[in-house]
Amino acid sequence: MKSRIIAILLLLFAAHTSFGQMKKWTLQECVQYAVDNNLTIKQFELDLENAKIDESDAIGALIPNLNGTTTISSNTGLSFNPATNEPTTNTIFNVNANVSSNVVLFDGLRNFKRIQRARLNGIANQYRVDDIKDDIRLNVANAYLQVLSNKETLKTFRAQLAVTEQDLKRTKELVESGVSPRGDLLEIEATAANQEQQVVNGESLVLISKINLAQLLQITDYENFDIAEESFDIPISDILSNSPKVIFDKALTFRNDIKFSESNVELSEKDLEIAKGARYPTLAGFFNYNTRYSDQNNIFGNFFDQLYIFDGISYGVQVSVPIFNGWSTRNNVKRAKINVDISRVQLEQQKLELETNINQAYVDVTSFFKAYEAAEKTLEARRLAYDYARERFDVGLMNAFDFSQAQSRLDNAEADVIRTKYDYIFRLKILEFYFGIPITLN
After folding, report:
1. What is the rounded CA–CA span in Å between residue 291 and residue 212?
2. 174 contacts: CB under 8 Å, gap ≥ 6
3. Chain centroid offset of residue 407 CA
4. Angle of helix 256-277 relative to helix 328-394, nearest 10 degrees?
5. Rg for the chain (alpha carbons), in Å?
6. Are 354 and 257 in contact (CB under 8 A)?
7. Residues 220, 223, 225, CA angle at the centre, nearest 5°?
8. Interior CA angle at 137 toward 366 and 257, to 5°?
9. CA 212, CA 210: separation in Å to the nearest integer?
């Protein structure tokens, strides 16, 4: 019995512990969650479903329709006897039934082209959805790296404050023993207060950046949202071995924004073909079957006999030739031609923007890496200067003000290294993304 109670308590403790653990999101989890739950994507995915329905409508227009009607009526007063075709004042009960079917045999191939257009529209909508997903992946990666950068900066601030607090404790002892002047203590206290403010600001930046990331994921439980505690080194990449022209040429083969613009050109060209099809005659076929029953036709038999006796069939074709319609067909063709030109210009503009973005990303990778290298060299120099200043301060050869200045310069150098590091990583990932490399931080 005692062992069972202990087992239950252990299970309860384990459940409580696992429940209390906050989920730590990795970059891949954030990206996938954003893609799966973004409302804009869901909206355009619904547009994609509508495009599929449009294709079904276009296919249905080629199939003969079939409609049936039945009319049941009763006439009292003056009417015509359906049996004798003479006027009568009797009450007459009638049943009329009709089945009809129509099919377009030729309409300038517009129905066939509408099917082609519907399929192109479905493809275009898929490219649009995929393009939005690409943008979301980049935005999430940027927000995620911002959280990482702010977290690393906060860790640095806290470590610096811990060192300063040790200096403050030692300086208090030296002041109380009369070895150091009180001004040194005040200077160290001011440094500690400044670093405490840096920690507070750093905590705020971490919180704000986590909220921004959570909003991209459309997660509202900000208090329980956090990313995995990871630290990433500068990734190894040979992307710069490719020229911007090579990267651009490859991007043209798979970028969804380019594919979407190309699909819009094809759609506008198909709209032009449909508009031109209105110039041709329309040939339609029809078939009708009708029958009737009247209680005045008893001499012809019962209900079913009359339906057989009085039935009839009509069928034929109808030709509609456009002669003049207020220039609407001509104007529609002109509008369609203009739309083709517009879509082609938009495609070229999209290519130009892509080439500009790739060239900018290429320059950014080079310049941000140089900035990171410069920050690393500065940090190394500041650290050596700080170590030298500490040695002088410890033996009383440097006052607290000069020492705090050396420490402040070191603090700024460490923060610059973290900032330039993640700036470079994000720019590198953008350039790789243009080359078709998925966003990862491994």
Report:
1. 72
2. 180, 184
3. 45
4. 170
5. 40
6. yes
7. 70
8. 85
9. 5
422, exposed or middle or buried, with CB in 10 Å at 0-12, 13-18, 19+?
Answer: buried
Sign, Cα dihedral of 336, 338, 343, 347: positive
Contact yes or no for 421/231 (Cβ under 8 A): no
50-100 pLDDT tens trace:
888 888 888 888 889 999 999 998 888 777 776 667 777 778 888 899 999
Residue 292, classed as helix, strand or coil, is strand
Closest CA to 268 of 113, 50, 126: 113
> Which letter does DSSP use for residue 297 in this model?
-
SS3 327: coil
CA distance 32 to 35: 5
Q: What are the DSSP E strand ranges found in 33-163?
A: 65-75, 79-80, 87-88, 92-106
Whether residue 407 contacts residue 383, with contact meaning beta carbons closer than 8 Å, is answered with: no
CA distance 353 to 368: 22
In the Cβ-directed half-sphere of 221, how many Cα atoms lie within 13 Å? Answer: 5
Is residue 144 within 8 A of residue 199, CB to CB? The reply is no
Distances, alpha carbon 17 to alpha carbons 8, 13, 21, in Å: 14, 6, 6
Residue 381: count of CB within 10 angstroms of its CB: 13
Instruction: Quote the CA–CA distance of 1 and 430 in Å, as a whole number.
Output: 62
Separation between Cα atoms, residue 37 and residue 46, nearest integer Å = 13
> Of 393, 433, 406, which is closest to residue 180 (Cα–Cα)?
393
d(CA 284, CA 277): 15
Q: What is the C-alpha to C-alpha distance for residues 262 and 268, in angstroms, rounded to an integer?
A: 10
Measure CA of the first residue to CA of the last residue in the chain; give whole Å.
51
Per-residue pLDDT of 372-428, as tens digits, reads 999 999 999 999 998 998 888 887 787 777 887 888 888 889 888 988 998 998 899
pTM reported for the whole predicted model:
0.76
What's the Cα-to-Cα distance from 416 to each of 112, 377, 409, rounded to whole Å? Answer: 62, 11, 10
